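Need tokens for this chain, all 186 residues.
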Amino acid sequence: GPEADIIGYRVYWSNDKTTEFTQLVGDVIPGINYVDSIKVQTLNEEIYYRIAAVDHKYNHSELSEILTLKKPDLVPPADPLIFDYHVDETSVEFKWYPSVSNDLEKQEVWRQANDSEWEKYGNGTAKTDTAFKDNVVQKGETYRYKIVCYDDAGNTSESQVLNVTVVDNGQKQVDITATVTFKKNT
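Here are the structure tokens for all 186 residues:
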């Protein structure tokens, strides 16, 4: 503030801007700089601060506007959960519960065929999708699927792996060859 009798400031903080703010330290902080250390592995993504100027008679100014700071997001989104699947000779279909994290950005279906590398299947899915059908499968082959979720800070989480073998009911396409012998009108 511009007043000549300011001796310092009191700094207040909160995890929720709609609740009462708590004073950070008991003393008046001289100067105009203050460094705070916070826990970043919490579920709320923002922290809020306000300050009040204090004069030499310990009169306090009105609280400042709320300063909102985004915390570094180190907490991955909640894991999605595959809960149902169906396999037949031509497809694999499964359903999942998506991540319940508020900061979920996107989710992707990943597939591994036999013992090959994991590959992202298609262009990803919308963050509200809950089902997937793979029509590019071969009978008797084993496939693994998982859902990978990303939050707005790039943190990831994965579902459990769904491991299925495509149905092969034993009906084989067989080439039949025959030999014909001609004997007197038969």
